[in-house]
Every structure is written in structure tokens, then in C-alpha cells.
Amino acid sequence: MKYVKILGLVAIAAAALMAFVGASSASATVLCKTTPTGPETTCPEGWDYAAGTVIHSVNSGTVTLDSTFKKIECKKSTIQGTTSNTGSTTTTVSGPIEALTFEECNCTVNVLQKGTLEAHWIPGTHNLTLTSNGAEVTVNCSTIFGAVHCIYVTENDSLGDVTEGNPAIFHSNAIIKRKPTSGLCDEESTWTATYEVTSPNPLYGAPGV
């Protein structure tokens, strides 16, 4: 009987632990118009960016996609989307991408699907991590091996971090996977870029309320 009671206590403790882990892993993010006081303080009431906020960013410097067959470079790039929600204690801020462009590139770059973005508050800071899902970009390059065609996709992948500020800065250092295309295309390539968030401005990350 004593052994049974011990097993019961262990089961209860395990269930409590799982509940705690589940609660602590729940995402909680809002986008704030002002700096919250303290690294983990919530956004002051009325200072969060509501659903329908347009987020627009423009690259500063060269956008690159490193691959074994060629280093793809673009001089101009834009990312724009509109938030679908405000965020809360259990949800992140997310929304569809409405504009995703790459121009003045050394290869032909076309966006087939823009996908969605999600912003995750980074605890202990006012910064954010961005994840992308459903984006699909095709690249056609002329190389010493001939024409190479690759299609790259995002599947809830981390793209990089947004550093809080006025303006905020998005630093991309993402590993992008490819669809089965040319055998010369890498299974994964690194997308490196820096974007200035021109709207909203300023921008700070905070835990949801």
C-alpha cells in the first residue's frame, strides 16, 4: 500500500510539472509603442500596437543567400505585413506578409508565396524573434555549371531577431531549406540581411497582458 501511495504522489508531481512546463512555454507577446519599464515589464495600458498595424521594413546593405554554387546578392529588399492580432498572455503577434521583394540581384529572384510572420518576445529584453511559415522563393542563376534553379521555403523557421528601438532593426541570419529542384542546390542555405523597420516606429517587444 505504501508503495502504491508513493507511485500516486510521483504521478501527481509529474502531472504538476507538465502543467507548469506547458504554462511556461506558452507564447506571450505584444508590440509596444514605448519602452516598458524594466526588462520584463508589460507594455503600459493603451501603448500596445493593435491588430491591423502595418509593419514595413527596408534593407540596409546587401541581402545575401549563401550557397555552394553561387553567392546570391540583392541590393534592394522590402518586407511588409499587417498584424492580425494584438497578442496576449498566451499568443504571439502574427499576420500575413503582403509584400516581399528582392531587386537588383545577381540572379533572378521571384517570390512565389509570401507566407506569414510571427513575432516572439525575448524574455529579459525588449527584443523579438521572427519566425516565418509558408514563404516560397525561387532563384535562377547562371553559373559555371550552367543554369541552376532552386526553390527555398520556410516552415516555421526562425529568421532572426529584431532589436528594439527608434527605429527597430531586424537582423536576419536564417537557415532556409529548399524544395527538391536542381541537384546543385544546397539542402539548406543561409539568408543574411539587415532591415530597418520604418513602420511602426518606435517598436519594442513586451510580454503579453
Gist of the model:
By secondary structure, the chain is mostly beta strands. Helix content is 11%, strand content 52%. Strands 2, 3, 4, 5, 6, 7, 8, 9, 10 and 11 form a ten-stranded antiparallel sheet that branches.
Largest sheet: 10 strands, antiparallel
Gyration radius, rounded? 21 Å
Give the SSE string.
Answer: HEEEEEEEEEEEE
Q: End-to-end distance, in Å?
A: 46 Å
Q: Write down the domain tally.
A: 1
Average pLDDT, rounded to a whole number, is 85
Classify the beta-strand content into a percent band.
over 45%
Task: Give the number of DSSP strands.
Answer: 12
Sequence stretches where pLDDT stays below 50 over 5 or more residues: 1-26
The secondary-structure class comes to mainly beta
- Give the fraction of residues assigned to helices: 10-25%
Number of helices: 1
The coarse overall form would be: elongated
Textual characterization of the structure:
This protein has one domain (28-206). Strands 2, 3, 4, 5, 6, 7, 8, 9, 10 and 11 form a 10-stranded antiparallel sheet that branches. It has 1 helix and 12 strands; from the N terminus they run αββββββββββββ. A hairpin with a 4-residue loop joins strand 3 (63-66) and strand 4 (71-82). The radius of gyration is 21 Å and the shape is elongated. The protein is mainly beta. Helix content is 11%, strand content 52%.
